[in-house]
């Protein structure tokens, strides 16, 4: 790979382009590629400190991501062995697995939020195969039996546990992590923000007015809700509370795991809260119009920024759409707007 140089980040540029981008003093964004993923890249943030480098997230354990990370660190005058600590926002593989591989070779520490322990235990359950039967069960409850069978057909090989070794430390909510070099050293506050996953963390840098937001606050898309091995009872309710928590913190520059920099946290949180308010209204209207299952409601709603029909989505994204609809329906039940009865293992929703 040809040497790359460090440049200032361009909020109007293509955020997936390979390189090293200075997005704040002593903070560098290194986009790493993703395989077969519509997101195309994940942002890893590198911060110099007295012991070497700390990375926020690590990328997926694939050769292309490793090569790009090594080239990015080289542009900063460092190597993979100079990374002494990985602060991981959540347990999804595009954030976690490369840290495990690099730790095995170079010895850096991996830190993950304590709220991910339940999901982590399920991922490491002996004999577990790629994919998750819990999502198949949730699809059947949503009235999407045919989609559940399609997802079941994708159940793959046993999980490669070598990239799912346990972290060195579990981070507590509210922990303050010293970071930075010499006189510019400051503290990152770990904040639990469940919704995308149970134990998702963001890292707030009040002194620098930065928020390393992981997948919790994304600048142009909404994260999947509750897509994890052990979903909580109401992941959307958790997510909305976590968004309001970010609104209650001082505003900051948004440094997301997927997407461009340049936005402010409060502005984007307001947009996400408004979006889910609109989706809840549209979901309620679909129930009022006579749709009773999550699958029927999902088929009545537009999806993605292109407002595509559910039938136009591939199997994976149709699953996410149906499960997200279930999450919105569950919030409407909690708010007393609709009632729910289960018949033959399928949840049916009715106006109240």
TrEMBL record:
Highest taxon of the lineage: Bacteria
Keyword Hydrolase tagged: yes
Keywords: Hydrolase
Coiled coil regions, renumbered to chain: none
Domain Metallo-beta-lactamase: 41-258
Keyword Hydrolase in record: yes
InterPro entries registered for this protein in UniProt: Metallo-B-lactamas, RibonucZ/Hydroxyglut_hydro, Sec-metab_biosynth-thioest, WH-like_DNA-bd_sf
Lineage, top ranks: Bacteria, Bacillati, Actinomycetota, Actinomycetes, Pseudonocardiales
Name listed for the protein in its UniProt record: MBL fold metallo-hydrolase
Record gene name: ampC
GO molecular function: hydrolase activity
């Amino acid at each position: 790979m040809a040497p790359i140089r460090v440049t200032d980040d361009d909020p109007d540029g293509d955020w997936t382009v390979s390189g090293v981008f200075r997005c704040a003093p002593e903070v560098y964004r290194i986009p790493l590629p993703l395989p077969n993923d519509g997101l195309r890249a994940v942002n890893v943030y590198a911060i110099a400190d007295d012991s070497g480098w700390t990375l926020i997230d690590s990328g997926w354990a694939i050769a292309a991501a490793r090569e790009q990370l090594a080239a990015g660190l080289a542009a900063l005058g460092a190597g993979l062995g100079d990374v002494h600590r990985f602060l991981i926002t959540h347990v999804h593989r595009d954030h976690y697995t490369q840290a495990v591989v690099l730790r095995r070779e170079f010895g850096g520490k991996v830190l993950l939020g304590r709220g991910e322990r339940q999901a982590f235990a399920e991922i490491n359950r002996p004999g577990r195969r790629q994919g998750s039967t819990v999502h198949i069960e949730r699809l059947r409850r949503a009235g999407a039996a045919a989609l559940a069978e399609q997802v079941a057909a994708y159940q793959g090989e046993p999980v490669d546990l070598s990239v799912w070794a346990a972290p060195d430390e579990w981070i507590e909510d509210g922990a303050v992590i010293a970071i930075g070099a010499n006189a510019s050293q400051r503290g990152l506050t770990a904040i639990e923000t469940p919704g995308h996953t149970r134990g998702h963390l963001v890292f707030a840098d009040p002194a620098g007015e930065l928020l390393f937001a992981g997948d919790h606050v994304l600048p142009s898309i909404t994260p999947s809700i509750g897509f994890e091995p052990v979903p909580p009872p109401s992941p959307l309710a958790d997510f909305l509370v976590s968004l309001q928590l970010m609104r209650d913190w001082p505003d900051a520059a948004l440094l997301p795991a997927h997407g461009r920099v340049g936005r402010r946290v409060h502005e984007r949180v307001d947009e996400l809260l408004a979006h889910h308010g609109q989706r809840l209204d549209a979901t309620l209207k679909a129930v009022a119009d006579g749709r009773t299952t999550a699958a029927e409601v999902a088929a009545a709603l537009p999806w993605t920024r292109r407002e595509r029909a559910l039938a136009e989505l591939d199997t994976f994204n149709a699953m996410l759409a149906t499960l997200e609809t279930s999450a919105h329906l569950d919030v409407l039940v909690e708010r007393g707007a609709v009632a729910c009865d289960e018949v033959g293992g399928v949840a049916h929703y009715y106006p109240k």
